[in-house]
Amino acid sequence: MSLSECVKIESLSKHFAETVAVSDVSLSVGRGEIFCLLGGSGCGKTTLLRMLAGFERPTAGRILIDGMDMADVPPNRRPVNLMFQSYALFPHMSVFQNVAFGLEQERVSRTEIDRRVREMLDAVKLEGLAGRKPQQLSGGQRQRVALARALVKRPKLLLLDEPLGALDKKLREHTQFELVALQRQLGITFVVVTHDQQEAMSLATRIGVMNQGRIVQVGTPDEVYESPATRFVADFIGSVNIFEGHIGNSGEGGLIAHCGALQIPLPSRVAMPDGTRLALALRPEKIRLQRQSDTGAQVGQRGTVEEVGYLGESSHYRVRLDDGTPLRVDVVNHRRDASQRIQRAERVTLTWSADDLIVLTD
Amino acid sequence: MGRSRISRWTVAIPLIWLLLFLAAPFVMVFLISLSEVRLAMPPYAPFIEWVADSWRWNLDADNYLFIWQDGLYFEAFSYSLKVAAIATLCCLLVGYPMAYAIAQAPERWRSWLLLAIILPFWTSFLLRVYAWIGLLKTDGLINQALLALGVITSPLQLLYTDFAVLIGIVYSYLPFMILPLYANLERHDRLLLEAAADLGASTWTRFWRITLPLSRPGVVAGCLLVFIPAAGEFVIPSLLGRSDQLMIGRVLADEFFANRDWPVAGAVAMILLIVLLLPMVGFQKSIQRQSEDGV
């Protein structure tokens, strides 16, 4: 085990009666990382988090934190703190008392507690609110109390369960940056559970995508988005157009995929025997959309715009190709002039680079 | 328009009820307590009389002065409050673990366990107190069992003691302690205990710092529900208690029925009411504080 490893999870499983919540997960998280467990509800991410915190006993496998086996360590003795999704602040205690609670459990002197709590409240910008009760705070303030309470003990590992889930959109974006800044400043390893891919993408150094109790892919946000390992990952993170088909007669310049009536050239690095079944994933923003009248040459796929969703900074187009395949295309609106934008029912040509195709064979 | 008239009436109904059945009798008792006893029907002097061509009020604080000067009442009051306080404490010590256990039990068990707590109410209160005579008397079940086991060689005097009164009150009023405590404990957010454990608190610390403070409204409500009726309890001390030690409920009944001294009985009742109102006021204050904290 390398020195820079904070958490090591070895073939961890958890069964509840009949259901398998977590199945054979192996994972390691480096010191100082922000690792996001991303998945839909019921994918086992929360169970995994609760096993790290010590609230659930693994059915099989083991967890090492800083090289120490956590099997027989109860939650109150783990070098781990959890920030609860609902924050779970103590309603009968003031902000100060909430944050001090964890330190009081260690044998730390009163003056030391006082100093560290004040320091932590400063760090999360709650200096003036030490005497308030949780009910007298806004959602964003509560979130920061929960964060301060979990961080004040300087755990080796901080677990965050949907840390931004209860905040509204504006506050969430702001808090995201604060969270990352605080993490850098303190150097504590974060494991974040979230179902929100944007949250995961913007926070994480690495993302572990979970589905049905298993980790299906681990990678940087860029890897997970641009090179999803499976169709599930491609579909779960961002939107995607999927073409299904098989490798056809190799053309001159490389392989061609036959997807219904479409013939799609594959990236040159792909090498597969004829007839291999595959799926091609193409992100909507990777497609270039042009009016048919603007393109002279007979390149690209032709289709008709069926639907336009104008979102301000970008527009989502729903285009039906001439063979009947529906496609989603995202276009950034870099001009103010509406007449420049392609409208509903216009004939269009769609082009993309073969390298932007994600080839999936699972 | 129509709505406000309806809402005015919905407020008026309980108000009228309270005026008729609480405020009016209260004023009556208060006035009787200020009047003087007469051999008449009703057995007290009219509040206001026509004496020598002018109206004269027949009201004074003599009864209160009498109660203040006669040691018997003071002793009965302090004895009642002492018994009620000890009984309340016993109920709390017995009831808290029971309420806690029910709140922790699996959900499908809880209603059955609660039913078991309420079940005794299906038998008459009087009957249940009589049953304790059978258990506690010199040749009762408890003495027989202890004799048979060889723990004692001669029967213990259990019946007609303070101990018997205490047992009777604790037994009778325990459900009034358990039910509000359970209602409170059942609502506690389990995540708070997990959060406390996560922050390093042991099982005992979690109870002491989280569960107990959060259950304070339940504790206070339970204690009042036991203390107030226990302090005025009449049946249990008459059936199980010492004949030489009076509780204030007994005194009140004796004044009323045996002596037919309604004015003194009224004064005793007023004093009892005021004494018992004080903890209620304290409770209201504490509830207000709690709701300001949002608990």
Overall tally of structural domains of chain A: 2
Largest interchain contact = A-B, 28 and 20 residues
Give the helix proportion of chain A (percent range).
Answer: 10-25%
- Summed up, the domain count of chain B is 1
Under CATH at level 1, the class of chain B stands as Mainly Alpha
Strand content of chain A: 25-35%
Between the first and last Cα atoms of chain B, what is the distance in angstroms? 37 Å
* Series of H and E elements of chain B: HEEHHHHHHHHHHHH
Structural class of chain A: alpha+beta
* Helix share, percent of chain B: over 70%
CATH topology of chain B: MetI-like fold
Shape of chain A: elongated
Per CATH, the superfamily of chain B is MetI-like
Strand order of the largest sheet of chain A: 6-7-8-3-9-10
Biggest β-sheet strands, sense, barrel of chain A: 6 strands, mixed
CATH superfamily of the largest domain in chain A: P-loop containing nucleotide triphosphate hydrolases
Count the E strands of chain A. Answer: 20
Strand order of the largest sheet of chain B: 1-2
Count the beta strands of chain B.
2
Per DSSP, the total helix count of chain A is: 8
Verbal overview:
The complex is a heterodimer of chains A (362) and B (295). Chain A has helices at 45-53, 95-105, 110-123, 139-151, 169-186, 197-203, 221-226, 231-236; strands spanning 5-16, 19-30, 34-38, 60-65, 68-69, 80-83, 157-161, 189-194, 206-211, 214-219, 241-247, 256-259, 262-265, 277-282, 288-291, 301-310, 314-321, 326-332, 347-351, 358-360. With 362 residues, chain A is an alpha+beta fold. Chain A folds into two domains: 5-236, P-loop containing nucleotide triphosphate hydrolases (Rossmann fold, 3-Layer(aba) Sandwich); 241-360, OB fold (Dihydrolipoamide Acetyltransferase, E2P), CATH 2.40.50. In chain A, helix 2 crosses helix 3 and helix 2 packs parallel to helix 4 (139-151). The mean pLDDT of chain A is 91. Chain B has 295 residues and is mostly helical. Helix content of chain B is 74%, strand content 3%. Chain B is built from 13 helices and two strands; from the N terminus they run αββαααααααααααα. Chain B is globular, with a radius of gyration of 24 Å. Chain A binds chain B through residues 53-55, 74-77, 80-82, 84, 86, 88-92, 101-102, 105-106, 133-136, 149-150, 153, and chain B through 189, 191-192, 194-202, 205, 209-210, 213-214, 293-295.
